[in-house]
Amino acid sequence: MKNLLVISASPNPDTSVSRQLAQFYQQQWQQQYPQGTAVLRDLATSALPVLDQATINAFYTPAEQRDEQAKQLLSLSDQLVAELQQADEIVIATPMHNFSVAANLKLWIDLVCRVGVTFRYGANGPEGLLLNKQATLIVSRGGRYGAGSFGASMNFQDPMLVQVLGFIGINQVAVIAAEGLAGSQEGVEQAKAQILQQFAR
Questions:
Q1: DSSP state of 174
Q2: How far apart are CA 22 and CA 154, in angstroms?
């Protein structure tokens, strides 16, 4: 049975384009895998904490040596990592905020990039541990920041996410961008067409 994890980062629950497109993607996925399971992780309502020293210390404490406080500090991180581990496919939907991802998505990244859990250091450097998975990034932007555009050099959104996913072992990553939304909604329809094309393969 296939498992899909949908991560939505927009703080806008009602008219978010990235949320709408993630829902559209999930609908196509469930048509293709009617027996599959889809899990939604809404980062806007997950109350993700900013990393503090106590949590970082807990990350680097061997599991058998963690006290109850350390276990409590890591409980949400453990849950987020388990969602990734159990997923065959991951969708990350986020608007562009100030040239990068929504703030809560950065908090999620900090909680799932864990040495010895989602990556490790080998003889040739870092090695991702979340293998045999694929991901789709659904990004929305008011302007145009794609390859070849005027704003491409200011795009720290999907390039950063591709790098992070590769770091933890997820190297099959597709990017679907809805751009130019400050001027028109044409980018939404173009993104939907890309999603449909992805499922037509």
A1: E
A2: 24
Q: pLDDT-based confidence at 22, cuts 50/70/90? A: very high
Cα distance between residue 117 and residue 112, in whole Å: 9
DSSP state of 43: G
Q: Which pLDDT score, from 0 to 100, does residue 113 have? A: 98
Tell me what pLDDT residue 1 has: 87
Amino acid letter, residue 29:
W
Lay out the sheet containing 172-178: strands in order across: 37-42, 3-8, 89-95, 134-140, 172-178
Residue of 47, 58, 112, 61 lying closest to 83 (CA atoms):
112
Q: Are 91 and 85 in contact (CB under 8 A)?
A: no
What distances in angstroms separate CA 115 from CA 16, 43, 51, 118, 147, one per listed residue?
Answer: 33, 22, 15, 6, 32
* CA pair distance 76, 56, nearest whole angstrom: 13
Residue 147 half-sphere exposure, CB side, CA atoms within 13 Å? Answer: 4
C-alpha span between 93 and 42 (Å, rounded): 10
Task: Kindly state the tokens that stand for 188.
Answer: 């939404």
pLDDT tens profile 105-154: 999 999 999 999 999 999 999 999 999 999 999 999 999 999 989 999 99
Dist CA 167 CA 155 (whole Å): 19
